[in-house]
Amino acid sequence: MRIAVVAGDGIGTEVVAEGLKVLDAVLPGVETTAYDLGAARYHRTGEVFPDSVRDELAQHDAILLGAVGDPSVPPGVLERGLLLKLRFDFDQYVNLRPSRLWPGTSGPLGGVKPGEIDFVVVREGTEGLYTGAGGGLHRGTPAEIATEESLNTRHGVERVIRDAFARAGKRARRKVTMVHKTNVLTHAGGLWARTFAEVAKEFPDIATEYQHVDAAAMFMVTNPQRYDVIVTDNLFGDILTDIAAAVTGGIGLAASGCINPTRAFPSMFEPVHGSAPDIAGQGKADPVAAILSVALCLEHLGHPDEARKIEEAVATELSGRTGEPIRTAEVGDRVSVLVA
Ligand code: NAI
Ligand code: MG
């Protein structure tokens, strides 16, 4: 098994170090190769994502990413040039974001107990409003025009919906909620709704429901217990998963996978959070999101027992927290001992 590691910038490097510590403890001997990408490289060399690096990454079984970005880099350079390019070039069409209220943690919602929130968002990762389709005219003048188009293909929508149903089939509650805005976005929404109804027929033992995205944003705060698997488009999923992270104890715990289920290209696993320049270099970032990303990676690569071990160790770690400030390396050490 060969894993490429893009630790990136800021706390990305700090949390990935702990993820790798845990990986080595739970499954010794995995070959990891570090790749230098992100704001630091951009400033040093002007390069964002050379083709030669892309070709090398493609040879790996998976990619572990920390976070890239810094306020000193113009917006979009790394997001479009590196993160989105990886997702698109490697056709990572399932953006998987599990949300769980872990034992020992408390979210901002009163009355919700650990264990009660346990859902996963399957966000479409290669289409929608994120393809860069659009353009502009008369920039900087009062006549300026800007368009940003949402691209949705039957192929792209169908494969991500089918993936969501397959995931629901492996979970206890066996329910898929499709989220869109079919009442207003009738073109894309119509395609999503028809495809959802057709794929659902292949999975008669899985319950289905549909919600508009604005209603889903509300229910995610008032009644997140109701969800099992949510499938939605790229932009809606981006926004909903930040709400999901917020109601389940914060961004320091939220892991994600950008998955190519066909395995034609490597999938990428990363914490949902960014490089957190405000706390970088202080050794106080929570590495749990990065550690749980390692668990998602192992699950994807066919090591479910090791993935469960990491999740159980994280549950123990979180149950033992007392509200004291955490130390990044100490969390990694404790979890490593628990999984070894
Ligand atoms: P951010 O997620 O880096 O930070 C938001 C807030 O959460 C900050 O107050 C930060 O200290 C805190 N936080 C984040 N992760 C934490 C952790 N593990 N433990 C404790 N606290 C944590 O988002 P922000 O500030 O909007 O972006 C910072 C940079 O990261 C930007 O350059 C942005 O473009 C980039 N970014 C990169 C991502 C990626 O590589 N996938 C994702 C999101 C942002
Ligand atoms: Mg986001």
Automatic annotation (TrEMBL):
Keyword Manganese: yes
Pfam families: Iso_dh (PF00180)
Requisite cofactors: Mn(2+); Mg(2+)
InterPro entries, alphabetized: ICDH/IPMDH, IsoCit/isopropylmalate_DH_CS, IsoPropMal-DH-like_dom
A single MF term (Gene Ontology): magnesium ion binding
Domain Isopropylmalate dehydrogenase-like: 2-335
SUPFAM superfamilies cross-referenced by the UniProt entry: Isocitrate/Isopropylmalate dehydrogenase-like
Keywords: Manganese, Metal-binding, NAD, Oxidoreductase
Top-rank taxon: Bacteria
Keyword Manganese included in the entry's annotation: yes
PANTHER family linked to this entry: D-MALATE DEHYDROGENASE [DECARBOXYLATING] (PTHR43275)
Protein name: 3-isopropylmalate dehydrogenase
Taxonomic source organism: Catellatospora bangladeshensis
